[in-house]
Fold this sequence. Notes:
alpha/beta
Amino acid sequence: MADELPLLLAGEPLTLLGARAIYWPARQALLIADLHLGKADVFRRSGIALPAGGTRTDLQRLQSLLDTYTCRELWILGDILHGPAHRAAWYQQWLAWRERNAALDVHVLRGNHDRQLPHAQLQVHIHDEVRLQPFLLRHEPMPDAALHVIAGHLHPQIALPSLRRRFPAFWLRERMTILPAFSAFTAGIMPVPAHSERMVVCVEEGLVDLPVW
């Protein structure tokens, strides 16, 4: 089982990563979706027990990718936040990570959980959507007439009966690619792929390329 999968999207060479990201070599860019900083903290304040360390672990996973691949840019396709930007432990962890990667251009596509993003002081560039030929980057997976859409939001997952659990997956559709959630603390939908659509499953940092329907 490989930890990366090269492929052509809209004629552009990209690499799917088992760590739930896309690497774009021509731009030296890393693309992830749905980081949901501080989600465990938000849940605990609501009385829902979740283990501590979710943001720290996700940032460690992200750092590992940045240490492995040459990156000038990081694109987060929405929902960098999970709720109000409380100055909790996750915020200090983020600032420490940002200081370590001060030369990295971090871009965030505003998502449905990002209402507080303009006030969060995360040291990022904020966009609604961005056209980077031949792609349109946005949070919600709505098609575009001219460009291949790369999006997040849905958190696609797939069940592998032999392993008795769900795993995050890339959903490769006609003129659209939907990334799995990067955050470990996320549920998701289980798509029913249409004919010719492709699911690439992330299993413990590796990739399982399922047969085309």
